[in-house]
Every structure is written in C-alpha cells, then in structure tokens.
Amino acid sequence: MSTPDISFPPAPENRIFSGVQPTGNLHLGNYLGAIRNWARLQDDYEGIYCLVDMHAITVFQDPEELRANIREATAGLLAAGIDPKTSIIFNQSQVPGHAELAWVFNCVARMGWLNRMTQFKDKAGKNRERASVGLFVYPNLMAADILAYRATHVPVGEDQKQHLELARDIAQKFNNDYGVDYFPQPEPVIQKEAARIMSLRDGSAKMSKSDPSDASRINLTDDADAIAKKIRKARTDPEALPGEVDGLAERAEARNLVGIFAALSDSTMEDVCKDFGGSSFADFKKALTELAVDKLSPMTAEMVRLADEPAYVDGILRDGGERARDLAAPNLKDIYNIVGFLQP
Ligand code: AQP
User: Fold this and answer.
1) Which of 47, 111, 163, 213 could serve as 42's disulfide partner, Cβ 3.0–4.6 Å?
2) CA distances in angstroms from 238 to 171, 241, 253, listed in the order given
C-alpha cells in the first residue's frame, strides 16, 4: 500500500474533548467525576464539551424527553462554570463528522476488541441479543467524538478508561493501516479523588442516571431538603469512621461517603479520616450534608434559572455546533482522502 500523497496540518497540542449523555438526572458522579473537572481545565486547554445525544439513543429515548434533557444537561454544564465563550458546548448530532468518522472506525475496530468492553456487558446484561447494535459499537462512536477533533486529552471518569484505551487502539491501527501519522494518541485526564462515585444505596454499583432508585444518587437539580434526606438515608455500616483510609477497606458505602466529602472539599480521603476518625456516621452525615448543600445549591439555582431560558440555551448550542463543525469538517476531508474516498 502506498502512503497517500497528501499533507495535513499538525494535530493541535492541548485540545480536550469530553461528553456526557443527555439522559436526564445529571448527578453528583457526573459532576465530581467529569463536569467539574471540565470547568477547571478550560483555562489550560481548548475545551470541546459535548452533549452526546447520538450515544443516548443507543437505549431508546422518548424524543420530547431527549430534547428537554439536552437543554437541562447544557444548563448543568453552564452552571458548573463552563464558559461557552472560551469552550465549545454543543450537542453531538449537530456535527455530521461524528457519525461519518464512526463508520470509518466501525471498519477499523475489530469485533474482538468490542467484545471485551465491560460497559456493553453491564448495560446489555443478560439480554445481549436484544441490545441495540449501536450500544455494541458505542466505543467506536466515542473514538470518533474525540478523534474528529484530533483531541489530545480526554477527561473521563474511571469507568470510561477502557473506552479511551480502545480509542487509542483505533487511532494507532488507523495510522498503521494507512501509513500515516494523522491521529494523536489521546491521553486520559483522571483525577484521583472522585474518580468513581458509587450509589448511595449500594457501594458496589456506580452512581448512575439510569438507576431506577432516585435515592441512589444526588441529582444536580435536587434541593437542600432532598440532598439532606438522601444523605441521611445513605447506606453505611454501624462502625464509627476510621482515623486512617486503610480502615475503609471492605467498607464500600463508608468509603464512598468519605470519597464524596474529600472531593467536595477539595481535600483527600486521608485528611477526611484524620478530621472525622472516631465520629459516628450520624455526625459525619450532618457535616457532609452541610458541605454538599453549600457546594451544590448555587449550581442548582442556576440550573433552575436556565430552565426558564430555553432560547438562550439553544443559542449556546447553535453557536457551539457551528464552531465544532468548523473544526471537524476539514479533518473529515483529510480522513476521507487518507482512506481513499474520491472527493470530486
Ligand atoms: N458514578 C460516577 N462517578 C464518577 N464519574 C462518573 N461519570 C458517570 N458516572 C460517574 C462520568 O460522567 C461522564 C459522563 O457520563 P455519561 O453520562 O456519558 O455516561 P455514563 O458513564 O454511562 O453515566 P451514567 O450516569 O451511568 O449514565 P447512564 O445511567 O445513562 O449509563 C463520564 O466521563 C463518566 O465517566
């Protein structure tokens, strides 16, 4: 195979891409594990932040609810401090390059690679035969989301690490197959604390939008009373808090609450154990409630305000969509050329 006789601009140096599914119930895990970090990174990186509506429909979504959830999630990103002038905020379906590149990647990725994805196994459950094909190839679309912009960094939660590794494998295989050095190897940006927030009802399951129990998560739209009630009812064990993190081994629920406290207070689990070692969970939960309400209520208030401003939110998405299309379109042209698609 001959190397294509075309030149292309170098990949950007500090470009971040990340996304969240607009499937309703944006929660504390999404915030601490992802969105808060996006807002913090926007000064050092060119941020492209996406409401991944095409990923959302891998599981059926009611169209009216999906539209409302896209607006609500956009409000969540804005309320968390992402500046739409500095960063790009848009919904995925506005940029055809995502779907176009995903098709190319469907032809690059191997069945064996996708068969190993644990999230598909978790989400498809026992009913694998009835899962959508989209759910199976979800990681290829995620690779396309990142690489359509030749993004260099991806802030993801711990749970998305395997998908990011797949995106790196796809980038590498594409470059090898076509004899080019086109795609960068996107690097994860993972924070230590809050990498994975677990359900308040079950320390072995991650906090998730689709958990049928609302008590399992703190939604970003929950008011102070709801937050207090959920923390009060959060599962723990009868023992007091340990003075050292090692004392949290085998105590998944306790560990989760300590992790949430550490993340919300920008400290470490070690420090939280030092401060609260010997306290009962009843006392610790009071302190956690105070902290959570203090940190989350300004965001909730802003989300409530933006819920009354749909035209403003739509304007942000429209502007972001245009800017994202302008970045992706020339890359897709390069990619189609590399692949050998005749573009007369
Ligand atoms: N529990 C979590 N702890 C830390 N980070 C989390 N993220 C999600 N849950 C947690 C991070 O949030 C970003 C956006 O996630 P997503 O909505 O695109 O997909 P998801 O991981 O499938 O989230 P959910 O809440 O579990 O949604 P459903 O129930 O719809 O599947 C990602 O960076 C993710 O790591």
Assistant:
1) 47
2) 49, 10, 11
256 CB near ligand 1 (under 6 Å): no
User: Which residues are part of the catalytic machinery?
Assistant: 123, 206, 209
CB atoms within 10 A of CB 11: 18
Nearest Cα neighbor of 236 from 211, 199, 210, 262 is: 199
Query: Using a 6 Å cutoff on CB, does residue 170 contact ligand 1?
Result: no
Q: Give pLDDT tens digits for 279-296.
A: 999 999 999 999 999 999
Q: What is the DSSP string of 77-132?
A: HHHTT--TTTSEEEEGGG-THHHHHHHHHHTTS-HHHHHT-HHHHHHHTT-GGGS-
CATH fold of 15-195+309-339? Rossmann fold (3.40.50)
Domain 214-305 annotated CATH 1.10.240.10: yes
pTM of the shown model: 0.93
What mean pLDDT do residues 181-199 have? 85
In Å, how far are 38, 172, 336 from 26, measured between CA atoms? 15, 33, 36
Query: Quick one: which atom of ligand 1 is closest to the CA of 52?
Result: 18
